[in-house]
Amino acid sequence: xxxxxxxxxxxxxxxxxxxxxxxxxxxxxxxxxxxxxxxxxxxxxxxxxxxxxxxxxxxxxxxxxxxxxxxxxxxxxxxxxxxxxxxxxxxxxxxxxxxxxxxxxxxxxxxxxxxxxxxxxxxxxxxxxxxxxxxxxxxxxxxxxxxxxxxxxxxxxxxxxxx
Length: 163
Fold this sequence. Notes:
With 163 residues, the chain is of the alpha+beta class. Helices cover 54% and strands 18% of the residues. The protein has a 4-stranded antiparallel sheet with strand order 1-2-3-4, covered by helices on one side. A hairpin with a 4-residue loop joins strand 1 and strand 2. 7% of the residues are buried.
């Protein structure tokens, strides 16, 4: 009779440890799979947002280049700073989406980044002493929120059976 008990202990306990370790490995592998899927989703979202940001910056850079070309043309047409700034004030008439503040000599515009964000750009128009100096100074190049975010503060609580 003692012989049968040692046989069960010799084969049963290692089998239980093996089953337990296989279950632990299966649970850990499922947790790892779930975590890696979440990280893949987050990295894909980050790539999309970064791509969208750089495409919007590319559009804004095109607008800035057009403004610089127009300012260079205006600089070569006149020799008086007042006439130059007067011509600079006409740039929003030629390029859509621009606003000009004549008191500060600032051109501003924005590019839509997404449904909830935009890229805001402000440029100070400069009167250079030669055509090799810059015509603008970038005052602002940033993303702004266009929608407000309201967090979900609702906490579902079990209130018992409703009769």
